[in-house]
Amino acid sequence: MVNRAAIRRWAIALLLAMPLGVVVAGDDGDAQGEGDYVPDDPETEWLPEEEEDRPFIERMDRGQATVSRGVFLLSRQLDRMLGTDDTLYPDEDYRSLVRVRVQQRVSDIGSDRTEAGVSGRLRLPGAQDRLSLVFSSEEPEDEIDAERGTPVELDDDRTQSVGLEFLRPSENWESSLDARLRSGSPVDLLTRGRVWRDFQPGQWRIRPRQSLFWYDARGTGATTDIRLDHPVTEYSAMRLEGSATWFDRESQFYYDQRLSYIQALSPRRSLVWQAGTRGESEPNNQLTQYYVQVRWRSRIHRDWLSLEVRPQLRRDRDDDFNTERRIFVGLEAAFGHPGAY
Questions:
Q1: What domains are defined for the chain?
Q2: What pLDDT digit, counting tens, does each position of 60-70 carry?
Q3: What pLDDT digit, counting tens, does each position of 197-238 carry?
Q4: DSSP secondary structure code for residue 199 in this structure
Q5: pTM here?
Q6: Count of Cβ atoms closer than 10 Å to residue 27 Cβ
Q7: Contact present, 141 and 160 (Cβ < 8 Å)
Q8: Can you list the alpha helix ranges (DSSP code H) found in 200-254?
């Protein structure tokens, strides 16, 4: 099923953003106000070299550069409004990034679907580089799926969210606190706190993390997860991930485990082999889903346009563990400071 409304909505948003970028990127600074104008860093290369023999590629690059500069300037203006000082930071300190994705799923049972989405993070270095504005149209509508941290599949309902995230780094443990509004009827409020630490015993890299959260619509809960990385060769590594999520209202645990083998095929291409399971504690500890998939990802144009192909085999308890064969094809465009992607 093709979600034409979603594609149309984000296409209109991009078309509106591009002229906005032209306005804020003007040389005279009138759009920002004479007192607020800050000249560009000459080291920042917003526009790539001209492609005289490929006019379509040149127009595409210039459109991406225009929107990217608009994202950067929006981040800088928000930083001056919300930041704690009036310092004019270098361009590269605004590591803001917006990603636009279009994904197509083809299944052997005929459940084809296309979706488009956008997500981003606007970093504010004036707030001691700890505050970010975050937004997404790709969050799972179900709060349980949102907290389990598993990738959103195209058969999952999605919702939009926007909020602020505060990061507090330290020498040992790091922590973050974020508050978000999630679309719906009524609008849902989410607050979440996280604390984690990175260890490196020998060649292992280990990250345990604890999260506490509260949804206005669903109540409180917690997630405990751990990630272990170990190199296999110079260009490959193994990753183990496991998590348990508890929702107090349901009085139930939700389990997730995943094993990944990550290969760097080249500086622009990677391949990830994955196998995963999902489970629940009620009515008894049981497996609800398992899957295997391969993710091939490549930057197909400069550093901002990527293609991902993901064949997948999946079995669900709700479908009597019958095998469903699916393939996902996704295109992703990145916008922001050139150093952010």
A1: 4-340 (2.40.160.40)
A2: 999 999 999 99
A3: 999 999 999 999 999 999 998 999 999 999 999 999 999 999
A4: B
A5: 0.82
A6: 8
A7: no
A8: none
